[in-house]
Specification:
Structural class: alpha+beta
Distance between the termini: 87 Å
Number of helices: 19
Strand content: 15-25%
Helix content: 40-55%
């Protein structure tokens, strides 16, 4: 392993100094910087095994291998130490930090306020809340209908249903000659992590948000509640609870900040940050007893007239409910960093945080040079009300990137939207037409009766109202020559029906959803074509989902590098292999010992292991399509193995494994029978030629002599 270290400090005053050294354990090369006018020779001492006598008893202990720092001309030497970077934090006043976070929150909300308002409207339309309450009450007061015929929900469900049928796994592929075996182990480990947090469910829910409102969010974090080693969690995050800075790229690569915000009770905040409990209480008392003049206040239905601290139009503190909106701000911070490099040794070391004098010393190591570069570090700050709960800069993260991953529908500038946005007017057109049609039916399609005061005897009028729609009704009249007169309504206008049909088609056209159900006996090719047709007009949604999963895959690699040891990965892989056979580098895992896997994971530095993230091209619908194609090939007489049909058939894995096992046993039995038949034919041929096979002779030697076939050994005297 190659590394840069430092030597312990020697001397006092101006003569005090230390050195920077380069060590290569693989080649035994050690190089030292020149400081205080001198350098040190570094010698590699190989490991010495213990000395033993003829009986194998140890008579002299061995010595471990390692580097030795040779003395300088004046006889002094140093000890090898790790280089410890001193954490440096820019000191800022809490008031300044609070002002910065609140201003970023206000700016981000203002930029996306229009999209967020439209997103909430889209969500209401999807859930069937189409009418404004004031308009609905007005129509009902006029005895008019306010009908909701929700066509949007069906179309959204069509798209999200396709996504559920097209689920794929994240796959890792080694880059630049990387080891496929390590990539396979990463695949198993990542699948285990995602299964534990029910990622397939979280992914579908986030995708549903992207379809409906235009943006779904995946939040990645590490929790230590159940496992002190750390458990990686990926969850769907509410789209309303994140504020983004200005950005154009959907992977946030050009975004400068984001703020996650959640309402938490004052009591819970005091439990989560116990060292800030007194400050929280004092801050809360300030709001109640002496409202701060530097912030705006508003009133809502929950506060009952008490003030709520706001920034812009968004409340931050609710006094009546004793709640704070906790803001967790992630910011990119740009700094200068140095890379110590040696091209001949293929060594590049990020010397972020190193002292300038030590970088100058590193330049004096033979073959080494220092390159300056710009780097990005993340700053994570959490605030509540007027209190800074925490401020990590730089944050100790496995990856200097945002841990919130968006799945966008469509995005242009500050605006984003989903499938529902374009169909809002068409949906309301349908509702109004149906409501109007119902009003017309109530008015023109009804019938009535004309009667006068002398038409019926006493009580017969009410009886007539009740039974006049019954078949064979009988009623008493005062004068049968003057029966009640019926008046029928007019015909329902067909134009209204056409208008309703036009509205339904408009929703389909605006959402660009193709509903083309599969036939019962269609071919595999037609099935695949129909599948592709259903995706037309919605490919961008699935493409954005795939892009988000690739970013998630890159982040998972960094998290696995930080929190999963080789021993932990080994246990995960062995457990997965006990359920479904796992292949590592094209070979079954059972062919590898635990020592083999541990050595593989220990010798490969995952921190520098580069992989390409893709998706598996396998899904339930793809499996069905493949099964149909294989079935058609088999029916056409092509030599398709029966095992292939079972492998791709839609059935439980346990049933599939049993069938495969039964077919394997049947194949072995058939092979044994064929071999026995072939052996019998060979024996018959040999016997016909006068040659007795040994196994036949042995078999017949156990029988009476008279039953043996005649040969030189069993023929009696004189028989010739």
């Amino acid at each position: 392993m190659k590394s840069l270290k430092k030597l312990s400090r020697y001397g006092v005053g101006r003569a005090a100094h230390h050195h920077i050294i380069y060590l290569n354990d693989e080649t035994g090369v050690g190089l030292c910087s020149t400081d205080a006018g001198h350098s040190h020779e570094i010698v590699y001492q190989p490991e010495t095994p213990p000395e033993q006598d003829e009986m194998g008893n140890e008579i002299a202990p061995g010595a471990p291998g390692g580097f030795i720092i040779m003395p300088a001309l004046d006889g002094h030497t140093h000890q090898i130490e790790e280089y410890v970077v001193k954490a440096s934090k820019k000191k800022e006043d809490d008031a300044q930090v609070l002002a910065e976070i609140q201003e970023l929150f206000k700016t981000g909300r203002e930029l996306e306020r229009e999209s967020l308002k439209a997103a909430q409207e889209s969500e209401k339309l999807y859930s069937g809340k189409h009418w404004d309450e004031h308009e609905k009450n007005r129509l009902e007061s006029l005895s008019r209908a306010a009908i909701t015929i929700n066509k949007i929900e069906k179309n959204v469900d069509q798209i999200t249903g396709i996504q559920r049928q097209e689920r794929t796994d994240i796959r890792y592929i080694p880059q630049e000659g990387g080891d496929q075996r390590v990539a396979d182990l990463l695949n198993v480990a990542s699948k285990h992590i995602l299964n534990r947090c029910f990622f397939s469910r979280e992914e579908s829910h986030a995708f549903e948000d992207a379809v409906i409102v235009g943006r779904g969010l995946l939040n990645v974090y590490v929790k230590f509640d159940n496992d002190l080693r750390g458990e990686i969690v990926v969850e769907k995050f509410p789209y309303l609870d994140v504020v983004f800075g200005p950005h154009e790229k959907i992977d946030l690569s050009d975004c400068e900040y984001l703020i996650k915000h959640r309402w938490l009770s004052k009591a819970k905040i005091e439990q989560l940050w116990p060292d800030k409990a007194d400050d929280i209480q004092k801050d809360f008392n300030d709001y109640v007893l002496d409202p701060k003049s530097s912030v705006q206040y508003a009133y809502d239905n929950y506060s009952h007239g008490t003030p709520i601290q706001t920034v812009g139009e968004d409340p931050l503190v609710n006094i009546a409910r004793k709640e704070y909106r906790v803001l967790e701000c992630w910011r990119r911070m740009y700094e200068k960093a140095s890379v110590v490099a040696n091209a001949n040794e293929d060594f590049y070391f990020n010397a972020y945080g190193w002292d300038t004098k030590d970088l100058k010393s590193a330049r004096t190591i033979p073959g080494f040079y220092v390159v300056e570069q710009n780097i990005t570090k993340m700053r994570v700050t959490k605030v509540a009300g007027g209190i800074v709960l925490s401020d990590e800069y730089p944050a100790d993260l496995p990856a200097d990137d945002f841990f919130v991953i968006p799945i966008y529908g469509k995005k242009r500038g500050y605006k984003f939207w989903g499938k529902v946005e374009s169909s809002k007017d068409a949906q309301m057109y349908i509702n109004k037409n149906y409501s109007a049609a119902l009003d017309v039916i109530n008015k023109v399609a009804a019938y009535g009766w004309f009667i006068d005061a002398s038409t019926f005897p006493d009580n017969e009028k009410e009886k007539f109202k009740k039974i006049s729609t019954s078949p064979g009704w009988v009623i008493e009249l005062n004068d049968v020559t003057r029966p009640p007169s019926r008046v029928d309504g007019v015909k329902f206008p067909s134009e209204l029906i056409q208008m309703m049909q036009v509205g339904e088609q408009q929703v389909l056209d605006q959402m660009n959803v193709i509903i083309n159900p599969n036939g019962a006996n269609e071919s595999g090719n037609l099935f695949a074509q129909r599948r592709n047709q259903k995706l037309m007009g919605s490919e961008y949604l699935f493409d954005n989902l795939s892009f988000a999963k690739q970013k998630l895959g890159r982040l998972l690699v960094k998290l696995i590098q930080r929190y999963y040891t080789p021993d932990r990965i080994l246990r995960i892989v062995r457990n997965a292999n006990s359920k479904t056979p796992v292949e590592v580098g094209g070979q079954p895992l059972d062919e590898f010992t635990d020592a083999d896997i541990m050595e593989l994971l220990s010798t490969v530095d995952l921190e520098y292991y580069d992989v390409e993230i893709t998706e598996s091209n396998w899904s339930p619908s793809m499996r069905l399509s493949t099964f149909m194609l294989l079935s058609e090939m088999a029916q056409a007489g092509q030599p398709v193995p029966p095992e292939a049909l079972i492998e791709f058939a839609d059935m439980p894995d346990s049933v599939r494994q049993k069938l495969m096992g039964m077919m394997a046993q049947q194949g072995q039995a058939q092979a044994s029978a064929d071999q026995a038949k072939a052996d019998a034919e060979i024996q018959k041929t040999l016997i016909a030629q006068g040659q007795i096979p040994p196994e036949v002779a042995q078999k017949f030697l156990q029988a009476p002599q008279e039953n043996l076939p005649p040969n030189e050994a069993n023929q009696g005297p004189g028989i010739m």
